[in-house]
UniProtKB/TrEMBL annotation:
The chain crosses the membrane at residues 41-61, 68-85, 116-143, 190-208, 229-255, 261-282. The keyword Transmembrane applies. Keywords: Membrane, Transmembrane, Transmembrane helix. It holds the Pfam family UbiA. It is found in: Membrane. PANTHER family: CHLOROPHYLL SYNTHASE (PTHR42723), CHLOROPHYLL SYNTHASE, CHLOROPLASTIC (PTHR42723:SF1). Gene3D superfamilies: UbiA prenyltransferase (1.10.357.140). This is Homogentisate phytyltransferase.
Length: 315
């Protein structure tokens, strides 16, 4: 009798290895797109704020407690939730403004992004619970701010005063959470720097971010200052605020005898002058990239200021 031939390979058997590889690739791509949507530059600056507060008063970063590591992961997850959820709720405005972020560009599903956002929130709250009740409440507050800012029912993103309040509160909570996780002594340097950079976030960044998005914001009913008052008036307000914060931080460092604040204060003041020059020379017909320049200067300034602070032996 002829030997029995092996049954033909079924399509499922033939494609199983390829399907497994494809699933992994899709999973990796999904995580990458989520990371892009949460704005890596923003996550990094929130981490820098957290670490500056968590290492305040220590002779070196290596002297920080292990809770600072878990606290950092918890905090980054809560921030990532806020920005991923914002991308979900901002999809119409982002598309009208020509955003290239994954959700607006159609590369990342709104449904999947929303699920990922809430998974991040769950992780953040679970991790925060292991760090104690105060950290849990602070993390819950951060997540609540992110939800209130973007939720269609509350939409605090639609009005500049509300946006300023949310952004400033998020900054203040970040410094407090970092100090809480680090358990370091509260120093005058940290208090002055945290107040100044929280104001920098609220009065400069929260307003400057709208310069490039006026058309889409107006189309979808937002009532921020660039829509209500126009770019020139808003640019003047942002410029005055930026220079005032930079000058006040430098003056505080000198008046209170805080030499470790001189370097970050110099960075902030220099960035404020550059930001003011960019904002006040903008024209209505400028490209979106040019209109976004003041916000980019705002971001670079706070990154450098925090890096300079972290590089010093004590804050």
């Amino acid at each position: 009798m002829p030997a029995k031939s092996r049954p033909p390979i079924t399509p499922r058997e033939a494609t199983y290895p390829r399907t497994t590889e494809s699933t992994r690739a899709r999973g990796a791509r999904f995580l990458l797109l989520c990371a892009q949507e949460t704005r890596p530059a923003v996550l990094i600056i929130f981490l820098a704020r957290f670490l500056v507060a968590g290492t305040a008063g220590l002779t070196s970063v290596t002297a920080a407690p292990s809770t600072l590591i878990l606290g950092s992961l918890v905090w980054i997850a809560s921030v990532a939730f806020s920005y991923l959820y914002n991308g979900v709720t901002d999809v119409r405005e982002d598309r009208a403004n020509g955003s290239r972020r994954p959700i607006a560009h159609g590369n990342l599903s709104v449904v999947h992004a929303r699920r990922a956002a809430w998974a991040l929130a769950a992780f953040a709250l679970t991790g925060a619970a292991t760090l104690g009740p105060v950290m849990f409440v602070v993390t819950l507050g951060m997540i609540a701010l992110g939800y209130a800012y973007s939720s269609p029912r509350l939409s605090l993103k639609s009005r500049t005063p509300d946006t300023i309040a949310v952004v400033a509160a998020a900054g203040g909570l970040t410094y407090f959470a970092g100090w809480l996780a680090g358990a370091a002594p509260l120093t005058a340097d940290l208090v002055v720097l945290a107040v100044a950079m929280t104001l920098w976030m609220g009065l400069v960044g929260a307003v400057a971010k709208d310069f490039s998005d006026t058309r889409g914001d107006a189309k979808h009913g937002r009532r921020n200052w660039t829509v209500l008052w126009g770019g020139r008036v808003t640019a003047f307000i942002v410029s005055v605020s930026a220079v005032a914060i930079g000058a006040a931080l430098l003056a505080s460092a000198v008046a209170f005898g805080l030499p470790d604040l001189l370097a970050p204060a110099g960075v902030v003041l220099a960035g404020a002058v550059a930001l003011a020059a960019a904002a006040l020379t903008a024209r209505p017909g400028d490209s979106r990239s040019r209109r976004r320049l003041p916000y980019r200067i705002f971001m670079i300034t706070q990154h450098v200021a925090h890096l300079v602070t972290l590089a010093q032996p004590a804050v």
